[in-house]
Amino acid sequence: MIKKEIQLKVPATVANLVCGFDILGMAIHEPYDEMELRLLSDPIIKIKHLDDFGLPEKAEKNVVGVVLRKIMEHTQMKQGFEVIIKKNIKPGSGLGSSAASAAGAAFGANVLLGKPFSYPQLVYFAIYGEELASGTRHADNIAPCIYGGITLVKSSRPLDIIPLTSPDLLVTAVHPQVEIKTSDARQILKNKIPLKDAVTQWGNIAGLITGILKNDVDLIGRSLNDVVIEPTRSILIPKFSEIKEKSILEGALGGGISGSGPSIFMLSKKKETAEKIAKIMCEEYRKIGVRQYVYVSKINQQGITIL
Ligand code: HSE
Questions:
Q1: Which atom of ligand 1 is nearest to the CA of 186?
Q2: What's the predicted TM-score (pTM) here?
């Protein structure tokens, strides 16, 4: 039976996974957005936000509206959608806030329409929302949000997504309350990289994927290095080096910037280590008077779930 309305839990995601700029990402359990979608008898889009992030509710200016409009055009629908969103993933956090809205819209619409689309097609529609938010068509947050676990976006044109097996690791993510817009964090990146850095990065990405597929956590740890993006972006993130250094001393396998920042994430084998790292992160930000939210969770294997 086709549902007329649906409630979704849409998870945050950590993109890049340190060395996989624009190609790797994983879903986590917290924070998550709540979305309610229902079919309307007229071909209109109504959006309401229950959060106070000041996001536009006009369909053409909202990530959700842009994705739904694409789906409506594609299917030549005579009906429309009403969407109520309670975002808990703060925009500009580096935890895939715009991707969650875009992915939730595509996923929810698909269920309401009787699931005519495959996961790659949902990613395809959701990319239009990400493009509105950040100015670029990257799918490294959207893919794990929809598929769950860790995903590789082998190519975004044409779209080629490979869901990977996910090791049973803990993720600690801290979101310091400073805003970094993805568009700004992309503009500061260098367009060219020296060949020796490219070779190091290729080694790390290959090592990371091999580590994930073989469940070799030490190889994962040895591969979590980024010589291309992190040196430029980490300058924007207060306490980045201190948190990274202290977390690794505490036993983290490794970690780095979550998406385009300012959030930082670390991977650990054990819950106790992940929780100690959470304390270190909070402590570092308290020292400089920056408010922060910290999340400890396993890798989220399900992605978006229907409530
Ligand atoms: N891959 C993207 C970036 C993720 O790092 O700019 C942010 O949305």
A1: 6
A2: 0.95
